[in-house]
Each structure stands twice: as structure tokens, then as C-alpha cells.
Amino acid sequence: MSTQPDLIVVGAGIAGLVVALEAATAGASVLVLESDDRTGGMLRRGRLAGVDVDLGAESFAKRTDAVPALVADFSLPLDIVSPRSGPAHLVAPRLGGRWSRLPLPRRTVIGIPADPLAADVVAIIGERAARRAAAEVTAAPVDPTASLADVVEERLGAGILHDLIDPLCRSIYSQPAAAVPLPRLHPKMWAALERTGSLLAAAAEVAPNAPGGTAVGGISGGMWRLADAVETLARERGALVRTGVAAQAVRPEGGRVSVRTDAGELHADRVVVASGPRAAAAVLGVPTAEIDEAATAPIQPAVRLLTAAVTAPDLAAEPVGSGVIVSPDARTAAKALTHIDAKWAWARDALPAGTHLVRLSARADEPAGLDSAGAVAREISALTGARVGRDDIGEIVTTRWRDAVVPAESDAWTATVMDAVTHGIHVTGAVAAGTGLASVIPHARALARELFAAHATPDAAASPVRKES
After folding, report:
1. By residue range, what is the domain housing residue 425?
2. What is the pLDDT of residues 379-402, one digit of tens each?
3. N or C terminus of the chain: which is more exposed, having fewer CB within 10 Å?
């Protein structure tokens, strides 16, 4: 801890580890500080039924080539895989107390369809809402600060917003469509909208022709392997990684940057803060009151995931494909379910015969509704239609992420944090780049290259940052 490095990175999630790898490859001396006892952030490994599995992010969006480019540029020993072909489903309440479980449409972007009159879209939103969406209103100017909900409702109508787009946004991004502007949520879709002037035309250009819920990729063996491989290579190239060391404050001091930690004070030429959004604000000295004021919509509670080993025979038929997204109108304890071994062939091949892995994303950070094996069994039964009993539930692992979601109205929130950045202090991660590996990794790579271009070595030249599309 007495080292005086060129760079100190605060936070060893994937953003911090990528910065460390890029900087070390460029020849800089790097020290990474992580307050937790393990690295990887939301790329976290657990073990159920004798198999290593993801307890955090289990896939990445293909809206950019960020993950494949990182793997290829650094020759990381990882295999990128696609989900199996079974579509995910949308669960929603219907009249008479019955629930519908319908496959997600093939050609949509965050639920925005290439063709609103396609049968799989009409099945979910109804013919009337589909006709309204097909008659898109394009006269209004495109406002980059407007929420996704405002843009969709004005152009495509309230029906498709309520029944398809908002449920997907809440489940995938942990934010209601009313709280997030499209440019931050999906830059590629926004660029297509600006170019074409039409949401439908933009979706037709961007949407993959693939089963709903499969426009993602993964790593064979789990996404946690990506963080592990990046850290391993960063260490091999000279980066020092220290766990169990919490940064308390980052300040400019005498032409360098001071990092006060619970283990003493450190100094470096540059510091990159790559921690969770609230932790980043804290070390930069942004008062909590300012953060709360900048978030004009309610700040999201902690993300809570429950992963269970299940032996119910009905799940062998994979009744909801790779999983379900749950409408906010449904009275359930979970907002999403992933049938892990139905989604990923590597998990199916690794598990004992008759054993399945199911993950539930809880609606709030409280145990109500998912506080026992019996409750988990009932929830899985309700969402999938499969018969699942309490005795079918084996080990359950609960994971809480208390600083994972950038608050609603994130542009204003981000501006508040970024105002605290001074010479020699920089910020990356979700607070600066937006949600998801597709956004976080390119931002971290570009920042590191910008900071250490003068250090570039032949090794660095072999790992170019690709332009994201």
C-alpha cells in the first residue's frame, strides 16, 4: 500500500478492471482498490447443484460489440455463446383473473416493434393498440431529453407502452420507461431514430430477427468468467489489485490526487472512480441531499436476486423458454424469471439430470413473498405454469446489489456527480456510461486509452479500441 502508482482505480467491478487492464497494457503502473472481499462487482460467481453460476449479470446486450471486442482484442480464453432458441415470455394478468404467458415478439427493441401488426405483437397488445402503433405520429420533433415513455406514447400510443415497452424496460433496466431517455437507454436505437425520424423504421433497422429475449450473448460457464479473465491478465501485466480496502475520499492535492482509505492515504497522478453510483458520489464528496434532489423520480431500491436449484419434472419441457418478464400489473413478488439451463446450453450440460436452475428477480428489497422454499415454489409455478412443490426446491442463494442502479432521471444525476470531477480525477462505470456491459466496457476502455495514450507500448497497439456501432 506504500506504492506511488501512475493510476489508482477505485472499484474492481468490470469497469475498474477494464481500465486497469488497458492502463497496464499501455505501460502505466496501476493500483486497484476494492472495498469488498472479492472483485468482479456484479459479475459474481456462486455455486449451486455443483455448478458455478452467475449471481449477478448473466448475459450482455448485443447492441454494441463491446464484449466480443474485449475478448478478441486481448485474446481472453473465453467462449462467447448465444442463448438457445426458445423465446422468453411475457406474463400479464387478463380479465377473469387468468394470466397470459405469451412469447416475446421477435423483432423489437425494448419492445418497440419493427412491425406493430406482426402476429406476436398483436397477441400481446391487442389489435386496436397495434393499429394505433402502426399509424405512428412522426410530425413532432425528436427530443433527446424526453423519457422513453413520453416519446412512445406520443408516437405509438399508450397501449403498446403499457403492455409491452414499460414491462420490458422495468425488467431489463430496473427503471420505468417514464424515468429513462432513449439516448441513454439504447444509443444505437436513438441514432437510428434521429436518422429516420421514425421509431418503427429505427426498430426495423436495429432489431435482430431472433426469438424475443435472445438478443443477448453470454460466456460459456458464466459471465463471471469475463471479470476473472480481465483481472488475471491485468495482474499479469503488472496491475496490483487490493481487496478489502475502502476508499473514503478522493481529492486533488499538490499536483497529484490523494486517495484516503481505511488503510491509509495514497497518491497517484490520476484516479479513476469506477464504483457504484452512490459510492462514487460519496468518495467525490457529493452530498447525499444533492443526489436525491437530482433524482426527480424515486431512487430504485436494491436489486435482489434469488437463484434456486429445482427438481420439478415439469420444467424439463421448458414451458416459458428462457424465462419470463412480468407485467407491473401482475401481483407477483418477482419482476422476472430466468430458466438458466433452458437459456444456456453450458448450464444444461453441467447440471445433474433432472436438476434445473431458476433465478427470480425480486420486485423490492424485502423478503415478503419470497421468504421460504414454499414461496419460491409457488412463484415459479405461477410464472411458468409448471407444477413445482416445496420439496422440489433445493438450495437457494440470495444476492443483493444495494448500489447497482443509477437513479431515475440519470442525466441530471450524472451531471451532479460529474461536476465534482477535477483535474486528475475521472469517473467510469454505469454512472458515467449508462446501464449494461454494452455501455460500460467501451466507456472504460476509451477513458483508459485517453489517459494513457502517451504510455502506449507495442502490446497496447495490439488491442485497439473499436468504434461501437
Report:
1. 7-43+221-296+406-461
2. 999 999 999 999 999 999 999 887
3. C
- Predicted confidence at residue 289, as pLDDT, reads 64
Predicted confidence band at 3 (pLDDT cuts at 50, 70, 90)? low
Q: What is the DSSP letter of 147?
A: B
Euclidean distance between the first and final Cα of the chain, in Å? 40
Does 173 have pLDDT greater than 80? Answer: no
Of the listed ranges 22-31, 204-213, 320-329, the one predicted with least confidence:
204-213
d(CA 383, CA 334): 9
As a whole number of angstroms, the distance between CA 244 and CA 375 comes to 35
- Whether residue 34 contacts residue 244, with contact meaning beta carbons closer than 8 Å, is answered with yes
Which residues, at least 6 apart from 87, have a Cβ–Cβ distance to it below 8 Å?
103, 104, 106, 211, 212, 213, 214, 321, 322
- CA–CA distance, 272 with 368 (Å, rounded to integer): 39
Query: How many C-alpha atoms does 348 have within 13 Å on its Cβ side?
Result: 13
Q: Same structural domain for residues 116 and 198?
A: yes
pTM strictly above 0.90: no
Contact 207, 114 (CB under 8 A): yes
* C-alpha cell read off for 144: 433527446
